[in-house]
Design brief:
There is one protein chain. The protein is of the alpha/beta class and 452 residues long. The chain folds into two domains: 203 residues, Periplasmic binding protein-like II (D-Maltodextrin-Binding Protein, domain 2), CATH 3.40.190.10; 210 residues, Periplasmic binding protein-like II (D-Maltodextrin-Binding Protein, domain 2). Helices cover 41% and strands 13% of the residues. The protein contains 20 helices and 15 strands. α3 runs antiparallel to α14.
């Protein structure tokens, strides 16, 4: 049985938390640490460093990291790994940014979500892992996760986990109302109408507006609303590109029609709805199973997993929803040992520890292993759900990138697109308002932002 992956709940909640003090701009490059000692090193340098008495501090929230640290200490007894949970999402990022600005107090290693990584990379706060030969690990990871850590030709983190999207659905509800598992979003909308007409207390899903979900859905629709150049200093935002409109025009039918439950994700009401069938599906990342198993115990056996519906019948297209990697801070005085720990955790023995703790892998070997793919999960009626989720990882649409100030942009989602949800008005207008406010912020912070 899989264990909970706490990253799941955190990733979805973080979008609604204000990113006070989180302006990671070009100007911050001058505030970052000069880097300390051992800013690069060969495999022999790293091996030698592991033989000396040393300590590294790791800021991470994933439950597996502590166990990985202990295993690393056992293998390298001269090294002490201090794992600190400095908070999740913005809580950690604010502390991390404060340490960067102060020039001291940052950890050697920090867990950072993919959407937030560009901000720290742009502020010149992170070491380029290519200096330690870790760029050679590219083939070990899925294209989408490697693309999320490889920015402007530099590798700023090693992928730790991933969140390829899938449709989690309540088979009991679908059987009760004779609903077909949708393969297209048009079919999904038809199911939504049929379900709600049969029982007005039941909905196909819930959605009160979530930045992470929205960007993932635009990603799946082929949108590329964020592009950068000149080392991230020049930014173009177009939340009315073809993919953005495709998502908004589709989702408008659900929001305008009152076909989505007005219940916030991760609330007590949300868990209740997932348990009693009043929320029948979730389009969400592959880290979700553990949350259902521990948070919705009464519905064990009711849920199943299917590929994410697409816009055209017969096509395959998915997106990432959540997940992150681990970076080395430039402030670190022990980068060689930190590099060894990153490799052990995310490309070595640590990946198995993460899997056992419920993490969804970003490593190709783990995604393709028979023990992973063939596992029959009791909660999902014995379905081999990892086959669906692993295929989704292969079907992630290429070419996506985040803003170099995505954390702030996500924090104002509720004041822009969120209002369209609240008023059941056109989500396209909400996206325009989000774009305008985001562009204004970017220009104020020293970026050159073009808003199309």
């Amino acid at each position: 049985m899989r264990t909970p992956h706490s990253t799941g709940a955190r990733v979805r909640r973080v979008a609604s938390i204000l990113a006070t003090g989180m302006a990671l701009t070009v100007a911050l490059a001058a505030c970052s640490s000069s880097g300390g000692s051992a800013d690069s090193g060969s495999a022999s340098d790293i091996s030698a460093a592991l033989q000396k008495k040393s300590t590294i501090t790791v800021w991470a929230w994933a439950p597996a990291v502590k166990a990985i640290g202990q295993a690393f200490e056992k293998k390298y007894p001269n090294v002490t790994v201090k794992v600190v949970n400095a908070g999740t999402g913005n809580d950690q990022y604010v502390k991390l940014q404060n340490a960067i600005k102060a020039g001291s107090g940052a950890p050697d290693v920090a867990q950072i979500e993919y959407y937030a990584l560009p901000q720290f990379a742009l502020s010149d706060s992170l070491a380029d892992l290519s200096d330690f030969g870790l760029d050679s690990l590219k083939a070990k990871y899925t294209a989408s996760t490697w693309g999320s850590v490889n920015l402007d030709g530099k590798v700023y983190a090693l992928p730790q986990d991933s969140g390829p999207m899938a449709l989690f659905y309540n088979k009991k509800v679908f059987d009760q109302y004779g609903l077909d598992v949708p393969t297209t979003w048009d079919q999904y909308i038809a199911d939504a109408k049929k379900l709600h007409a049969a029982n007005p207390a039941e909905y196909i899903t819930n959605d009160t507006g979530d930045a992470g979900f929205t960007t993932s859905m635009i990603w799946q629709a082929g949108g590329q609303p964020y592009t950068t150049s000149d080392g991230g200093k020049k930014v173009t935002i177009n939340l009315q590109d073809a993919g953005s409109k495709k998502f908004a025009n589709t989702w408008n039918q659900l929001v305008d029609g009152g076909l989505v439950s007005p219940v916030s994700s991760w609330s007590d009401e949300w868990y209740k709805g997932l348990g009693d069938g009043t929320i029948a599906t979730l389009a969400i990342g592959a880290w979700m199973p553990g949350n259902l198993e521990t948070g919705v115990t009464d519905a064990s056996g009711d849920w199943r997993v299917a590929p994410l519906p697409t816009y055209t019948a017969g096509e395959t297209a998915s997106a990432e929803n959540g997940g992150g990697g681990d970076a080395i801070l430039k402030q670190s005085k022990n980068k060689l040992v930190a590099a060894a720990f990153l490799k052990y955790m995310n490309a070595g023995e640590g990946t198995q520890i993460s899997l056992k703790a419920g993490g969804f892998p970003s490593t190709v070997a783990d995604l393709n292993s028979s023990s992973f793919l063939d596992a029959k999960i009791d909660y999902f009626g014995g379905q081999q759900i990892n086959k669906v989720l692993a295929q989704s990882a292969k079907d992630v649409v290429k070419g996506w990138s985040y803003l170099p100030f995505q954390v702030y942009s996500n924090s104002i989602f509720g004041d822009t697109v969120g209002q369209a949800y609240a008023n059941k008005s056109d989500l396209n207008e909400g996206l325009k308002a989000w774009q305008k406010a985001t562009a204004s912020y970017g220009n104020d912070q020293g970026f050159t932002v073009t808003s199309k």
